[in-house]
Amino acid sequence: MPPSDLSGQDRALCLAYGLFALGGGLVMGVQAVAFVVREFDAGPLGIVRNFLRDATVNAATVFVYADLVLVWAALAVFMIVEGRRHGIAHVWAYIVGAPALALVASFCAFMYVRQLKIAAARGRGTEVAPPGHRTPTRGRQR
């Protein structure tokens, strides 16, 4: 389903997810470029080594870095489950994209695609029930 065919709520969610993905990718991209430019003399492996050193230089940075890694792992589980439920291809790319691009960009891109899949299923009348939700049955079950 093209984004132009979305209903109001689906369009609003896709717009929000798209803006967060784009904005987060831009902000984090600027930060990444600034770091690479500052550490350019260290070479490719030195840049990675210096990033990991800086990310774990004190208790505050370890806290933030560990929290991001744990959130990334939890979101990976969510994306795998939701990707299977809604038939989203290449979920691994969103998971790998988190450290390669930015968690905000890759997760919001996944949520954008997920919302498109949900809207398309709703349009076909094949919406997936939430986990643990029972669909009503007609007549008596024996």
Tags for this entry?
mainly alpha, 142 residues, 5 helices, elongated
A few lines on this structure:
Helices cover 73% and strands 0% of the residues. The chain is built from five helices and no strands.
Describe this structure in words.
By secondary structure, the protein is mostly helical. It is about 75% helix and about 0% strand. The chain is built from five helices and no strands. Helix 3 (about 60-85) packs antiparallel against helix 4 (about 90-100). It starts with 7 loop residues before the first helix and ends in an 18-residue tail after the last helix. The mean pLDDT is about 90.
The proportion of strand residues reads: under 5%
Shape: elongated
How many angstroms does the end-to-end distance come to?
A: 40 Å
Helix-strand pattern? HHHHH
Q: Give start-end ranges of low-pLDDT stretches.
A: none
Fold blueprint:
Blueprint (H helix, E strand, L loop, with lengths): L7 H31 L4 H13 L3 H28 L4 H10 L2 H22 L18
